[in-house]
Amino acid sequence: MRRLVVDLPFSRAALWSGRMTMFALATVLLGVALGRTERIETPAALVVLGAGLVVAIAAVLLAVAAFFMIWGDGRPGFGKALGAFLVAGALVAFPAWLGLEAVRLPRLHDVSTDMADPPAFSRSRRALEMRGGRLLTEPPAASRETIRTAYPGVAPLTLEITAQEAFQLAMKAAQQRGWTIIESAAPGGRTGVGRIEAIDHSLIMRFPLDVTVRIRPLANGARIDVRSASRVGAHDLGANATRIQTFMAALQELADNRD
Description:
Layout: H1 12-37, H2 42-73, H3 78-104, E1 110-112, H4 125-130, H5 141-150, E2 157-159, H6 163-176, E3 180-185, E4 194-201, E5 208-218, E6 221-230, H7 239-256
Keywords: Membrane, Transmembrane, Transmembrane helix
Organism: Alsobacter sp. KACC 23698
Protein name: DUF1499 domain-containing protein
């Protein structure tokens, strides 16, 4: 007796998970590109990026549903569902990790090595223009104690070199990190304090972040303090503390290896 072989149709869930993944990937890349090129306002770029991530989550769920359906009736489409699951899952993984960091870390956006006397940001015309007119006041008292507790490694750096030498090394470290120097003043003059005003950018979306470095002469060296503040959002996810620590490490290395 001849057996009837029925070709099962391609899994619609697998098909649509693949389509949604491609749409999500294109939308996320568009959001990142718009944010990096500053063609639209930051909130609008975040909306585009968020929309892509929502579609990516839906694609992951649809791919999982496709796995169960394919397991149940054996219809084709496993490869497409697997590909959609991996790509869409990769899109969602980084934001999911950021969400966990937002829960784990304190809600801060302005971090300094000196909470008793934070370095002040310049209010010169050029500095205000570069910051889009944004004025940065001192961090509130409540956040200062939080910073001390959450980031004990964020501390001033004392070098046994002159303040002038420390200033030159700090300028070099800032340039090595790709910071845009707004203005700088070598130690000396009435106060004897040197400073560097700069702008850094986040890695993926290129969000601007404001940084100021203060160099104070000591009897047997120089003390360097750094303050870093985010412009976007009320939670920096630890980025400002990391920026300060990596800058201080680079500065210490330059001091150790100077001729």
